[in-house]
Amino acid sequence: MSLSTQARRIPQDDSHYYLSVSLVIPGSQIPFVLAKDKDSATIDVIGEARTADSKFAIGHQRDT
Question: 10-39 burial, b if ≥16 CB within 10 A, otherwise e?
């Protein structure tokens, strides 16, 4: 699947940040199904924030 991502950190205080992430998924790569006369699709998104050296996970998020 061809996917592009962009991330940005937003300071909350001196030692905490919010992480803003955007995903762009081409519609042609999303499997749609017909349900009740409407096209429908479900996308599962799972992400993990890691330290700069990638040794430790410092946060994660999952959503459908």
Answer: eeeeeeeeeeeeeeeeeeeeeeeeeeeeee
The pair of structure tokens assigned to 14 is: 């001196």
Q: What is the pLDDT of residues 19-55, one digit of tens each?
A: 888 888 888 888 888 878 888 888 888 888 888 888 8
Kindly state the tokens that stand for 23: 């995903």
DSSP string, the chain: ---EEEEEEEEEETTEEEEEEEEE--GGGS--EEETTEEE----EEEEEE-TTSSSEEEEEEE-
- 9: tokens are 């950190």
Total Cβ atoms within 10 A of residue 57: 10
Beta-bridged to residue 34, according to DSSP, are 39
